[in-house]
Amino acid sequence: MANEEDDPIIQEIDVFLARSLLEKLYLFQYPIRPASMTYDDVTHLSAKIKPKQQKVELEMAIDTLNPNYCRSKGEQIALNVDGTCTDETSTYSSKLMDKQTFCSSQAASNVSRYAAAVYKKGELHLTPLHGILQLRPSFTYLDKADAKHREREAANEGGDSSQDEAEDDVKQITVRFSRPETEQARQRRVQSYEFLQKRQAEEHWVHLHYYGLKDSRSEHERQYLFSQGHGLAENTELIKSPSEYLMMLMPPSVEEENDKPVAPSNVLSMAQLRTLPLADQIKILMKNVKVMPFANLMSLLGSGTDSTAVLRCIQQVAMLVQGNWVVKSDVLYPKDTSSPHSGVPAEVLCRGRDFVMWKFTQDRWVVRKEVAAVTKLCPEDVKDFLEHMSVARINKGWEFMLPYDEDFVKKHPDIVQRQHMLWMGIQAKLEKVYNLLKEHLTPKKQEAQSAHPLLVSGEQRVNMAKAKVKQNYGQLEKEFQKQKAEMKSNDTSAKMDVSNIRIKEEPVSDEEPMDTSAYEGMNNGIINGLHAEEDSTDSLNGHLPGGCIDRVAQELKAFVSSTFKKQFVLTLSELKRLFNLHLASLPPGHTLFSGISDKMLQDMVLDTGCKQILVPFPPQTAASPDELKVYALWEAGDTYDQHRQVLLEIFSKNYRVRRNVIHNQLSQECGEDLNKQEVDRVLK
Predict the structure, then answer these.
(1) Distances (CA, A) of 35 to 30, 32, 62, 68, 136
(2) Strand, helix or coil at 557?
(3) What are 603-653's pLDDT values in tens digits?
(4) Distance between CA 481 and CA 484 in Å, rounded?
(5) Which of 6, 184, 209, 585 has the lowest CB atom count within 10 Å?
(6) What is the distance between the alpha carbons of residues 348 and 354, in angstroms, rounded to a whole number?
(7) In the chain, what are the domain boundaries?
(8) CA 453, CA 455: separation in Å to the nearest integer?
């Protein structure tokens, strides 16, 4: 009741649906105009449209007498485009750039939710829009200027070589006969960018007549924006039950295939993706990302997704390599396709890529020359395989791009065992096809490995380090006692200063840095997909190579800063979800794929000027620990910094506060009486 009193109804307005301009009304979005081209004095010289493509081209006059217009620049542009001669084909007949062309592009693929509204005498009349077009300046006159320049250069070169014209009269002609076009080649040609551009250019322009704002014809057409009849029969769309009205406001997100915008293959719309079946979602994600940890995949699929169903689907389109999922070769190279570099069929490409994936199950490093020597593929194809799942390191080779996912291996041993059996089968096929030698089958640094991979836990490493410290301490103590006995036996040396004898004492504690140099070779390499590499464990825990720290920190800081400038308050769970979406949009091999831990992400949030707000949530809340961690941008540099800080202090004392309490607290702390709109802006 208190909220209703604070927000009373001021006026009720009748809404009418106008249908006279249905499927005829377009909204044009003009760019910001320069001072020499104002809304009042613009003259539309010509207008034309391609109805099928919904493409419009407008030609507008520029006020050359405006004091803000640079006349010398306009003359120079006209001279570059048309040259010194003036004829009917000239773009600028006045030898001055006195007009500008604007071309349109569709601003939205689905405009059924948009309408133009006119308010008159207490009535609101709505007309649905048929299209929204954004007008941008066209610079085709620059292409014309370049063509003129090339023609002049060709003419000059032709004048210099006029003495050789007699010799050039006789030329040898080579006759070639084109082969019949196959169905596959025809499909590629039809889907090419050049063919689509040619089809669009074939549609003829329809010239339009432009009427000004104050023209009588414009005034007549403007009357169609009002509903012609106010009876109930004309507005049956507005007489709906509450459930039907809600369905009209938020229709199901089902779009026809031809209404979907054409996007590049590496760009995904998460809204469209989540309308597909789970198996198709996973296939599209893996095909675009190529390498992904299971935790990142679950976060991209959204909350509530069954992990068992995801595990069942992911094994159909990906293989497990070092605890991470790598998309299968036959998904990237379907049947009846070929290499864009060498024309090799897809079957051969799949075998070569499987060999690279299998090598990464044996070791974190792969040498490109070795892969090329075994697979006999061209260097471009081998490079594509490696770029899908690894990063090039100078003087070392190609390293697998993601750290070993030890958490997934521990949680799902049955999946790991099943994938190990699949890799054993793939290895047997590769041995027959490539006649692999013994050095290809055994991982590097074999002398430093036992017959079976050793997985040493953190507690075992601590115990080994403590034992070594005790051993070193005992040896040093014996040496000191020996030296002390020798000093007592010699009277002359009894007076010597024993301060130069330094005893290396290494206290035994849990905080002592571990010296595991003796055990470095204990778990090097990876056997059959099981992790045993020391460096990859460091990468998993957030320790990056020295040369990458600054670059990764800069990328991470840029992401955190831009995210909090858009959304001032975020939980750790939401921030991690946005970060995973950001990772999915990055190209393979990006620096942020080197491993970002939760601690690194939280530290970067605090370093960018944000603070953690300790909101006292109720004990019986069902939120996860990451959802209980709330971070907020403390200073954004705007006029509402002080109000925002007061508001965050209020929520640090109680997680639920009434609006009038917030209003009073803001007025007291800031020393000014804020109105309702300002309080709403701070709350938003």
Answers:
(1) 14, 10, 10, 6, 17
(2) helix
(3) 888 888 888 888 888 877 777 888 888 888 877 767 677 777 777 777 877
(4) 5
(5) 209
(6) 10
(7) 14-62+98-151+193-207, 270-434, 547-683
(8) 7
